[in-house]
From TrEMBL:
Superkingdom assignment: Bacteria
InterPro entries (alphabetical): Metallo-B-lactamas (IPR001279), ODP_dom (IPR045761), RibonucZ/Hydroxyglut_hydro (IPR036866)
Domain annotation Metallo-beta-lactamase: ranges: 29-218
GO molecular function terms attached to this record: hydrolase activity
Keyword Hydrolase recorded: yes
Claim: Hydrolase is one of the keywords in the record: yes
Keywords (A to Z) from UniProt: Hydrolase
Organism taxonomic ancestry: Bacteria, Pseudomonadati, Pseudomonadota, Gammaproteobacteria, Cellvibrionales
Record-given protein name: MBL fold metallo-hydrolase
Amino acid sequence: MLTKQIFKNNSHQWLLFGRDPEKPEKIIDSNQYMVKTETKALLMDPGGIELFPSMLANVIKQVPVEQVTHLFASHQDPDIISSLGLWDQALPEAQLHAPWLWEGFIRHFGMDNIDYVAIPDEGGELQLDLVQLQFVPAHYLHASGNFHVYDPQARILMSGDIGAALEPAEAPLVVDDFQDHIRKMQMFHQRWMPSNRAKDDWIERVSKLEIDMMCPQHGRIFEGDDVKRFLDWFSTLDVGTAIPRVQSA
């Protein structure tokens, strides 16, 4: 599994874990992210149960396991949080920040020691030493309770399934040709994002943020002008395409 530092300043750093060539063939590739400060670390969408051994091995190369004080799950999908029961054994004093709506479902993955901190619909904040992170609502994109993580200092948005593309493990980490990348994203967004209204609400919300890097849970990172290119493209995309359209007479 690849470990890549994508941001660093005097107060904290962002790390990406992913592109695991040893994952089972039919398991989709996923990106896991960690924010590391002087004494704490937040592990975001820590992955499925199949990835846990690789994830744990790579995380503890970066921080002592007791420094992982917080987990975040953007929603309830197994590729995001089915490893929870194993993290629960490795991190007995950590907190899991996740949508209030999914608590009864996420606990099915196993949760005896980690504390569930329910994020209200309007979002919230998390303080890690000198770093304040924001939980940004992204409901119905694609889960009915869904959040992203924004770091105002790093100007990074961890965007969950928005911006995702399903690519092989050897794919580059960063979008290098936006127009070509559209064909890798289009079907995913049209099928997995069910609501144009929710999409437009999210675009309006994040357009007010200063974002240098948008980091999805699958596929490549968007940097610089490609962040705006994505927002402009997404704004024109008709989503929820599996629902038959009613034809007027």
